[in-house]
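Moderator note: this is an archived Q&A kept for reference. The question asked for a predicted structure of one protein chain; the sequence and the answer are reproduced below.
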Amino acid sequence: MRTCDGSTERRVGSARRCLRRRAWSVALGAVLASAVLATAQLSMASAGTAQQSITTSAAVIKLIAATSVLKESTAPTSSSPGGAGAPPRSAGFVTRSGSGLLLAGNRFRFAGANEYYLGLDDNVRDSSGMPTYPTKAAIDDALMSAVATGATVVRSHTLGVSVGCSGCLEPRPGVFNDGALVAADYAIFRAGQLGLKLMIPLTDQWRWYHGGESVFTGWAGYPNDPDPSVNASNSAAQRASEGHFYSDPAVLSSFRAYVAHLLNHVNRYNAVAYKNDPTILAWETGNELWTADAAWTQSLAHYLKHTVGARQLVADGSAADGMSVSGAAVDAADIDIVGGHFYPVDVPWMLRDASVAAAHGKAYVVGEFDWTNPAATAALIAAVQGDPDIAGDLYWTLMPHLAGGAPEPHGDGFAMYSPAVGGNMSVVLTQLTGHARWMAAVR
């Protein structure tokens, strides 16, 4: 998840990015060459002129054409890429077989979006300035926007991270308010009706409005900086405090009690406990937990599956920009999915990590990526479609509309809307929609 002013916060030690190298196939090399050409053409165009629109369109067309060799080699035979595709495949749990995902016995690959706000929305606030629960109409708008753009999976933080705020599931230590899940209940129920699957993080390294690991360490007496923009990425003191989230027995117990309460909650709309709902593809151990170690991740995954009894897959939540899966829980018995977040898109890094994941028998998912560069997005799409080791990808972030129909504002620079707002967004939304339908048709 990105900072609210659109800047990119990098984990400590991300200078190791300079070490990445991977050999490319001839076909993918052609794609990247076209990506460079496209980017150059985009930057040469004068902003706000007709020439910019012409140059943008031509650059993207060239890039998409360059990917055709990869698409032909992996195109599903049951439905043409970008076409109507297969009907929604929502029945049953998604399972893992080796490094691949399955649904109803068929190969399951996907493309979709992040919609972090489905349980509690910070963009729409009440008279006292507090985040609000999205209305049914807002949730419908968000999920139907995802469906309209071909998505089959949505990732949403606030369906699983809800601690330390007045509107949260656990506003104070040991005090639970299941009324706070009114929007989450409807979102999960409605997603199932629409044929969507969900990926849900359980905590967060960042200090956002919905809470995260710093809430639990704060409850245990470890100091938190009063400024929530001070976090583990930019403060050694804050990082040291939050480090106890992974080691202090009292904090571990408190977090597990929260997780158990959440997963045992029975949805008021479908009478199904969260842990038994096949609409949920996977529980993610957290969002961008770059300080988590593999032992903690495996311990939580084991707890989810064998103590709480969750029937869904479990994803390693250490995926973050600048983090490689080689440092994730790739050998953890109860982890099914590992992945990456990319700001900006980094195709060589993604392909390298997907190969590592497959070698360790884990599915690989791009949990977040920056969609704002059409050339880079086209390169990512081509690479994903050409690499069966990549199970799916989710861009950041698809936003809903307000009650009057206007786009709901979101100021991080990555807001996507359907219908698109602006020429650049329109180009990318067309790319993403075709890609999602292509992935949904894979068998």
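Archived answer notes: Residues 26-44 form the longest helix (19 residues).
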